[in-house]
Amino acid sequence: MAWSAILFHLIRSKTNPARRQDRIPPVRDEEKDQRVRPGWPRLALGALSGVLAGFASLAVAELVAAAVRPQSSPVIAVGGASIDATPAPVKEWAIRHFGTNDKLVLQLGILAVLAVLALALGALAVRFRRVGAAGVLLFGVVGAAAAASRPDSSSFADALPSVVGAIAGALLLYVLVGRLTMGRRTPASAPGAVTEETGDSLPVSAGWDRRGFVVAAASAAAVSAAVGAVGRSLNASRGQDAIASRKKVVLPSPRSPAQPVSKRIGLRVPGISPFVTANRDFYRVDTALVVPKVNAAAWRLRIHGKGVRRPGVYSFDDLLHRELIERDITLTCVSNEVGGPYVGNARWIGVRLTDLLAECGVEPPSQGGPADQLVSRSVDGMTIGSPVEDLMDGRDAMLALGMNGEPLPFAHGFPVRMVVPGLYGFVSACKWIDDIELTTFDSYDPYWVKRGWARRAPIKTESRIDAPKPFARPKAGTVMIAGVAWAQRRGIDKVEVRIDDRPWQEAHLADEDTLDTWRQWSLPWQATKGGHTLTVRATDRTGAVQTDTRTRTIPDGASGWHSVVVTVE
Ligand SMILES: Nc1nc2c(c(=O)[nH]1)N[C@H]1C(S)=C(S)[C@@H](COP(=O)(O)O)O[C@H]1N2
Ligand SMILES: [Mo]
Predict the structure, then answer these.
(1) Ligand 1 contacts CB of residue 448 (under 6 A)
(2) Among 33-47, 167-181, 237-251, 534-548, which stretch is predicted with the lowest mean pLDDT?
(3) Which residue range forms the structural domain that includes residue 398?
(4) What are the residues facing 477 on neighbouring strands?
(5) In a shared domain, residues 404 and 324
(6) pLDDT for position 168
(7) Is residue 251 included in any domain, yes or no?
(8) What is the CA radius of gyration of the chain?
(9) What whole-number distance in Å separates Cα of residue 422 and Cα of residue 420?
(10) Are 197 and 126 found together in one domain?
(11) 287 in contact with ligand 1, CB cutoff 6 A
């Protein structure tokens, strides 16, 4: 390939002794390097050249990525690869500290590392011009390798942005640093030239083409900014076909609707989580640095694998025109800490998964089916494994097409995602799904399981205090303590609140919508001045009291009681 040839050439011409001999003395490389050790101003300008070269590389890569696909841009590809490679504890730490900003922080982190390396490469290039340029190419190789090996990468075109970007960056660094070292050869090869190379070091102004450097650097910066901006906006405007296909969707009324949410189900207490979480407020957890924009018209879902007697391929319209069910289901992320935000309740419309599976001839293991694991795959290469038995045990496991009255938002899986009551999202809720394979737990580990998370993960009974907020300073008198509790598939039976170490008091519970939704609760409290600790616990319909044993989120979800400390004034 072209870039490897250039890389090879750059390295070879620097080190090949045969080439050395071609050069005419009097100044051999080594001597010259000794005599004119670049002073710090020149090193600094070299470092600046490195940064400019890095910037140019990324800008050009962005533009090329607009022609390939946004996911192929080097920062996205390397970011994706680092997400996949990040050990679970670090990922947990990142989610805990940066929340939904974790992706932004990751990309800023990558840019910061790149900037430091670019500074170093640039400074190095002042002494070893070709090595510096080759270093830039090496980054291109890393980016290209990351992009081409992403699970959703289907062609080597994904390597192009990194490669082309790196070549542009390497050339730029070579040219810029050339301006910085220009004058050094002149005295030797052309006696009587302007520079006087007399001592161990040169006066900064003497040994280089200051004007040439400034002009080249400024134009490079301007051109890069323009190229980068064009690339950005082209990338941002991609997926128009997908956006149009989403606009066209008209959700039919479901054959089996959910009951209306009455005032007794949805309480109106200040600060409490609304019973239905609005789409824009719904938590988002996934590994996608670029939200996949899938064109529903071109989308297909394949169902195949072990024991699938009639494998099938379904289009979006096929699903839309089937019998649809509408259900309120509370989704929960296994990464949710006790008291955390990664839980939400929405009204989903979709196809009952059991019906579809039965149509394909799938039988649950309890009826002799050979597959006990259903693996869903998404267009972005995610794999999620769910127990077939759970999916077919009568619960409303569905392929959702709608969320709170509209087609799925892109961030939540348009055109189709799985939603399964009672299972954490990482073992059930595949977004942007396009493939369902029936297999066994013994023969395949999906994405998160490979990274230390549990194979099977039913949602634990949990409760959360929404109001008052931690460290709030309410006025003495009646303070409403309120929140939500969930135990999908089992249902919530009771919620109790403890103030400091007084006896548990039973909270008022909103009516139950279904077993699969959370329940709001509230308790008026006669608050007295001073510091207080409020604690909540739930009891589910099996009679099990939420455990106070604190566990980490990994491998199968956090447990423990949620407490809030407040100061009453
Ligand atoms: N394609 C894909 N689907 C995915 C994930 C993902 O990373 N990629 N994350 C899963 C996890 S861990 C959870 S908790 C839910 C979150 O769904 P939401 O973002 O719509 O709330 O999506 C699940 N589906
Ligand atoms: Mo999750």
Answers:
(1) no
(2) 33-47
(3) 263-451
(4) 527
(5) yes
(6) 97
(7) no
(8) 31
(9) 6
(10) yes
(11) yes
Domain termination site, one of 418, 451, 484: 451
Do residues 470 and 442 both lie within one domain?
A: no
Q: Does the beta carbon of 284 sit less than 6 angstroms from any atom of ligand 1? A: yes
Ligand nearest to the CA of 379: 1
274 has a pLDDT exceeding 90: yes
In a domain, 21, yes or no: no
- On whether both 284 and 231 belong to a single domain, the answer is no
Cα 280 to its chain centre, rounded Å, is 18
Residue nearest (by alpha carbon) to ligand 1 atom 10: 426
Determine the pLDDT at residue 208: 76
Lowest mean pLDDT across 104-113, 299-308, 559-568: 104-113
On whether both 230 and 325 belong to a single domain, the answer is no
Torsion-angle region of 404 (φ positive above 0: left; ψ -120 to 50: alpha; else: beta)? left
How far are the Cα atoms of 240, 366, 485 from residue 263, in angstroms, in the given order? 40, 41, 18
Which residue minimizes the CA distance to atom 8 of ligand 1?
A: 286
Task: Show which of 451, 479, 509 is a domain's final residue.
Answer: 451
CATH number at residue 386: 3.90.420.10
Residues near 450 by beta carbon (within 8 Å), at least 6 away in sequence? none
Q: Which of 22-26, 78-82, 522-526 has the lowest mean pLDDT?
A: 22-26
Query: Is residue 163 a part of any domain in this protein?
Result: yes
Question: Looking at the predicted structure, is the pLDDT value of residue 203 above 60?
Answer: no
**Across the chain, what does the average pLDDT equal?**
90
Which residue is it, tokens 């969930």?
486
The verdict on the CB of residue 330 being under 6 Å from ligand 1 is no
Give the CATH number for residue 513. 2.60.40.650
Residues 405, 484: one domain?
no
130 and 64 part of one domain: yes
**Tally of domains in the chain:** 3
109 φ, ψ to 5°? -60, -45
- Ligand 1 within 6 A of CB of 425: yes
Q: How far is the CA of 186 from the centre of ligand 2 (A)?
A: 64
Q: Is the pLDDT of residue 191 over 70?
A: no
| 127 in the same domain as 85 | yes
Q: How far is the CA of 332 from the centre of ligand 1 (A)?
A: 10
Separation of CA 431 and ligand 1 centre (Å): 6
**Which of the four pLDDT bands, split at 50, 70 and 90, describes residue 350?**
very high
Ligand 1 contact via 385 beta carbon (within 6 Å): no
Of all atoms in ligand 1, which is nearest to the CA of residue 333? 14
pLDDT at 38 (0 to 100):
72
457 touches ligand 1 (CB under 6 Å)? no
Q: Could you give phi then psi for residue 431, rounded to 5 degrees?
A: -90, 160
Residue 293: inside a domain: yes
Using the Cα atoms of residue 325, residue 274, residue 261 and residue 460 in order, give the sign of their dihedral. Answer: positive
The preferred substitution site among 106, 375, 380, 426 for testing ligand 1, maximizing ligand atoms within 8 Å of CB, is: 426
The residue whose CA has the least distance to atom 7 of ligand 1 is 286
C-beta of 333 in contact with ligand 1 (< 6 A): yes
Q: Characterise 434 by phi-psi region: left (phi > 0), alpha (psi -120 to 50), beta (else).
A: alpha
Tens of pLDDT, residue by residue over 438-481, are: 999 999 999 999 999 999 999 999 999 999 999 999 999 999 99
Q: Is the CB of 286 under 6 A from ligand 1?
A: yes
What ligand has the least distance to the C-alpha of 377? 1
